[in-house]
């Protein structure tokens, strides 16, 4: 739990202080999604869903999004990834990359749908092409690389 | 009931979180609820101290990085300036050397005008390779009309005479060479003698009568006797003189050459042919 909170804090700091500098064409990778994804690979669906919810709440608090938007999305992502990680070989880099890319796409689509539901619509095509897709690719590449790195014991215990 | 909850816990948790999220969104978007704002505020408050620390750390890191970059730039500038200083020092050294050379050449030119005979200026390109002789090699030879027994001088005085000539270079026997002899006069008293070099690299005047008027500091000039050296070229000053009491007929007089023969760089060769073709190392005739 402590390791998870530390990781969450680290992601909050990185996402707000460092990641903006890594933006390419205004597109930033989503470390909150990477954290949820990484946790969901080894944790059960219940934990992954709850963790996704908490991570999403913090992401909401650090952004201009309505509270609950990312909590909703990441809860769903946590649950889905945790379920799918049993079917997909997530130990391989390509498997992780693909699944993370898919998670990015689902996250983007869900956000679009929820925003549309709450009468904050975005143009579908351009948003998908210039925001969701590049964001998913960037997050997948960075996230897969990050997850492939050797981690300290505390982080390895994160998902257990 | 508990068993039912446990059985559908995954779906329950998922639907609960999704529902809660939806409610929070609805509260904030539709009714501008204070609860959603408070939750967001609480969450932000829990992270903001760390964000502030991170921002301070980031600013410090950026400052440090910029200072490091500046330091590197300063170091680079320093290296460039050092290199420039080194080049300028070299240039100053070269200019100083050129100035000294010009000064010496002007002296030689003045001397050439004073001598009034045809003369060739030459650079010293080598010194004797042994300790047994005292000769120098100059960069002018037969091609410039240099011949054996020509007199070699500097602005300060006599240097020696040419003893070997090739097309492009010539060897000059210095007055301090053990085989060198020059007819000289004590300028003040007009007493004549023979200035001979020795193994120690000094000059000794031989055949000066015991009662000859010689005082330390007297100027010694060439006498013109022997036909090799023109008359009146300064050679040196009397360094010390003694009158032996062992029945010897002549004084023992040592002369300090006016020219520093160990630091010769340019010389003037007087193209005045000698009266007689003297062999290497032979002495001049007595006055």
Detailed description of the structure:
The complex is a heterodimer of chains A (160) and B (287). Chain A is mainly α. Chain A has helices at residues 2-18, 31-42, 45-61, 69-84, 93-117, 124-148, 153-156. In chain A, helix 2 (31-42) runs antiparallel to helix 3 (45-61), helix 2 packs across helix 6 (124-148) and helix 5 packs antiparallel against helix 6. The longest helix of chain A is centred in the middle third of the chain and has 25 residues, at 93-117. Chain A is globular. The mean pLDDT of chain A is 84. Chain B has 287 residues and is an alpha+beta fold. Chain B contains three helices and twelve strands; from the N terminus they run αααββββββββββββ. Chain B has helices spanning 2-7, 9-29, 34-115; strands at 119-127, 135-138, 151-153, 158-165, 170-174, 181-186, 192-197, 203-206, 219-222, 234-242, 252-257, 266-270. In chain B, strands 1-2-5-4-3-12 form a six-stranded antiparallel β-barrel. In chain B, a hairpin with a 5-residue loop joins strand 6 (181-186) and strand 7 (192-197). In chain B, helix 2 (9-29) packs across helix 3 (34-115). The longest helix of chain B is centred in the N-terminal third of the chain and has 82 residues, at 34-115. The radius of gyration of chain B is 47 Å and the shape is rod-shaped. Mean pLDDT of chain B is 83; it is low at 273-287. The chains are: A mainly alpha (160), B alpha+beta (287). The A-B interface holds A 9, 12-13, 16-18, 45-46, 49-50, 52-53, 56-58, 60-62, 66-69, 71-72, 75-76, 79, 114, 118-120 and B 9-10, 13-14, 17-18, 20-30, 36-37, 39-40, 43-44, 47, 50-51, 54-55, 58.
